[in-house]
């Protein structure tokens, strides 16, 4: 994210929200870069533009990047059947790109969301019907007073958690068994968390610019723990290589990521004795 100095129109120093938030470049910065040929930025003369991003990935970066474009459409006056004019925002589509080799499989599909929500829109209707754009911000490191990772947030809302977000969603009524994972998830995408998944932040630590002091739980334990919250369940997670509500720097790193060494798939993975899909299919009560 870059600030523009209002007095000079010159880009200022990058301004970062902190852990979990993506780096952002605003339209006025892109326009400035192109108009002034900053770095490799230019109008290519064929309806396309080249824009040099304001910061480079670290030399030791080993993750998988994603690039997204979204916008805040202007509010427009719309007259209803009674002649009343009210401001509404257009439901702008967002797009996400992945560098070669970084494509990802998503566990849920927007069409599944809209089977109930019809036309799910958030943040001023500039992020709509695209789960991939949600993940740009709602990742495993996004934490303030709460953890806002997509899975943690959505599971907590749909299970009417009495504690998440101060109980804000405790009155939510999910119109079927919460064990019907197929309602939201694509087929076969709820057996176990990805092996390379990061531990999920539950709350930010003292330093909001680093992830190491976030309070976190390993990925599968967090996904399952939304429903399975008993003391016995927490103990089971811990004895099987998970970690519950400790700082991320204490969670075992694999491949440089704080993901622990969960053994959940040994019993609950596809085809095994306690395969998750045996207990989380439509019709299960």
Concise structural overview:
This protein has helices spanning 27-35, 110-117, 131-137, 150-158, 219-225, 231-239, 264-268; strands spanning 2-4, 11-14, 42-43, 49-50, 67-69, 75-79, 85-89, 95-97, 121-122, 127-128, 200-203, 215-217, 246-247, 253-254, 257-258.
Task: Let me know the largest β-sheet.
Answer: 3 strands, antiparallel
The helix-and-strand class reads alpha+beta
Question: Which descriptor suits the 3D outline?
Answer: globular
Oligomer: single chain
The count of β-strands is 15
Strand arrangement across the biggest beta sheet = 11-12-13
Backbone CA Rg: 22 Å
Distance between the termini: 47 Å
Q: Which stretches are low in confidence, meaning pLDDT under 50 for 5 or more residues running? A: 1-8
Series of secondary-structure elements, N-terminal to C-terminal: EEHEEEEEEHEEHHEEHHEEEH
Instruction: Give the proportion of residues in helices.
Output: 10-25%
β-sheet strand percentage: 15-25%
Mean pLDDT: 83
Key attributes of the depicted protein:
285 residues; alpha+beta; 3-stranded antiparallel β-sheet; two-stranded antiparallel sheet; globular; disordered N terminus
In words, what does this structure look like?
By secondary structure, this protein is α+β, with helices and mostly antiparallel strands. The protein contains seven helices and 15 strands. It has helices at residues 27-35, 110-117, 131-137, 150-158, 219-225, 231-239, 264-268; strands spanning 2-4, 11-14, 42-43, 49-50, 67-69, 75-79, 85-89, 95-97, 121-122, 127-128, 200-203, 215-217, 246-247, 253-254, 257-258. The chain is globular, with a radius of gyration of 22 Å. The relative contact order is 0.11.
